[in-house]
Amino acid sequence: MDSLTSVAAFTGHHYWTIENWRGWVGCSEKGAMIYSEKFSIPIVNDDGEEENTLWMIKAFPKKHTSTGKEMLAFRLVSLNKRTPRGSFHFKTVARNFLGQETTVSKFKPLPLDAAYHWMTCIRYHTSETLVMKVKLQVVSSHNVRPPHASAPGGRASSPSPSFLFFPPARSLWSKIGSYLTKVDSYLAKIDGAVPPRYCR
Question: What's the CA dihedral at 79, 107, 129, 96 to 10 degrees?
Answer without folding.
Answer: -120
